[in-house]
Every structure is written in C-alpha cells, then in structure tokens.
Design goal:
Distance between the termini: 32 Å
Radius of gyration: 16 Å
Number of helices: 2
Helix content: 10-25%
Strand order of the largest sheet: 1-7-8-9-10-11-12-13-2-3-4-5-6
Shape: globular
Mean pLDDT: 87
Number of strands: 13
Low-confidence stretches: 203-209
Structural class: mainly beta
Strand content: over 45%
Length: 209
C-alpha cells in the first residue's frame, strides 16, 4: 500500500486557510483513551495513556482495567523504542502504525514542513513531514478542520487516522479529537479511540511555531 500521490496545486492561495484550520496540539499533553481493537472478527478493549512533549517525545502505554501494563512504546529524538512488547500487537505495528500514526495528533507537524497539495482525486490537502514520516491531512466530511491523517515512510502508507468526533468548547470551537480510529495500511487492524481524560489538550486554532 503506497502513500497517496500528491502534486502542487496551480493555485496555492488556500494554504493559509488550511493552516489556520489545522488542529495543533499544545506543547505538553497527558491524555487517557479508551480503545477497542478490532482484528479478524474479534475485539479487545483496553486503555491507553499518551504522554507527549514538544518537540519529539511521545510515550504510549497500554493498560489493563486493573492498571497493569500491556505495552509501552516511546518515541524521542533518538528514535522509537518498544520498552515493553504487547501480547496481541507485534513490535512493527507498535512502532510503524500506532506511534507513527498518533504522532501528528499529539506532536503536530511544524508549519515550515507544511505545503498545500492535491491528491489523485484532485482534492486539496496539506502535506508535511514529522521526523522520518510523511503526513497528509485531508478533509473527508466537510469539517472546517482536516479529519483524515495519513502517515507513511519510504513511499508506503503506514497508518490512517479518521476523526469521528471533535471535542468542542461551549462556543463550538474545536478543542481536540474526541473520538477517532487508527488503522494499518491494509485496514486489517483497527483501533477505535475515545478520549476519556486530557490535560493540556487544547490546540485549536493553530499556534505559530
């Protein structure tokens, strides 16, 4: 599964509006999610704790209902390391799909790495880089903010996130993704995330880096 092909648009004027609409996380986040893993007709539910800090720290910990650790992965300036492997997800999935896929939500993509492009369908999107990963932000359902994030490396699609519901302030302003799915390139393994608690997670509109 290759990463979506893109071309520079003939009229790049929407670039500023796209940047202004892009959800950008705060410098540090501690967020707890409830997750349902769907694969091969079976489901597993558990909790995930995500801790992030600019520019490149991202720690993802899977937890049982009793507080035991299912897995732990950390991404930082030195790369991504599986600290504790999972009993039901292999290390490649933890590194290339889970952590790489979550990074654009919790670490963001620097403004200087973003450019307006068009995908094969002709629709506009934002393309950027986060470390060694390519990231493509697209609008699938007419939302003001992009609601699909594709992540890839070496020309291959690694992970796709679809935002199902935005958590909003009383005035309607987007605060953070409240529910979203993350799937591998083949769509064989899907994780449904629901945020149940977050500290510092309010990043809309985008701040300037």
């Amino acid at each position: 599964h290759r990463f979506p092909s893109t071309v520079a648009p003939h009229a790049p004027q929407p670039g500023r509006e796209w940047r202004a609409s892009l959800f950008v996380p705060p410098p540090a986040i501690r967020s707890q999610q409830r997750v349902v893993l769907s694969r091969g007709g079976s489901e597993i539910d558990f909790s995930v704790l995500v801790v992030s800090r600019e520019p490149d720290l991202l720690r993802v910990v899977g937890l049982t209902d009793l507080g035991g650790t299912l897995f732990q992965v950390q991404r930082d300036a030195a790369g991504t390391q599986v600290i504790q492997g999972s009993p039901f997800l292999d290390d490649d999935f933890l590194v290339e799909t889970l952590v790489a896929g979550l990074a654009p939500i919790f670490l963001g993509v620097p403004d200087e790495e973003l450019r307006l492009v068009r995908v094969e369908s002709g629709a506009p999107a934002l393309h950027g880089r986060l470390g060694e990963s390519e990231v493509l932000f697209a609008r699938e359902h007419g939302e003001a903010a992009p609601d699909r994030f594709d992540t890839g490396s070496d020309g291959r699609l690694r992970a796709s996130i679809h935002v199902l519901e935005w958590n909003r302030a009383p005035d309607g302003e987007i605060r953070f993704p409240g529910r979203f799915t993350l799937s591998d390139a083949a769509g064989d393994c899907r994780l449904d995330f629901r945020v149940v608690g977050a500290q510092g997670m309010s990043g809309f509109p985008a701040r300037r880096r």
